[in-house]
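During the no-cost extension, the postdoctoral fellow (Dr. R.K.) reprocessed legacy sequence entries with the updated structure-token encoder. One reprocessed record is reproduced below for audit purposes.
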Amino acid sequence: MDSPPTLTPTEIKLIKTSWEQIQDNPQKVRKIFYLKIFEIEPEARKLFRETFLSFDSLPDSFLFMREHLDNLDKEIPRIKRLGLKHKTYGVKKKYYPIGQTALLWTFQQIMKDKFTTDMIKAWAKLFEFMSQDRKSTRLNSSHTDISRMPSSA
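Re-encoded structure tokens follow.
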């Protein structure tokens, strides 16, 4: 397996800064995020009726990523366990790139022009890291291009 990408201090700062910009209104974040997921993949909605997944919080993996940015390379066993947890919920491999797209879309909708290309690249690199270390469980990376998305939710 290729070694996972390493986040630079600048990329870590960009991720933290962007996360701080959206966390002030968690209900709005959740609404935009989940509506985008269901727009892209309506089948994903059934996960919330048939499992423990909840609209009350963002997926564990996003919170985990943000909280452990400075030590992700030491968190690989926990990242793999997180992938297994998602599998028990019925999360399919194809949903992970959708989650990435929906999260980046959410940032773009809330932050507007403040969500820079460098922030998008930093988050994409973080998703790549997470996907490389969870491949053996469920996750597979995918390139996400939000530049072609409409500008409103």
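The chain has seven helices and no strands. Helices lie at 9-22, 26-40, 46-50, 60-67, 76-88, 95-111, 117-134. The remaining legacy entries will be reprocessed before the final report is submitted.
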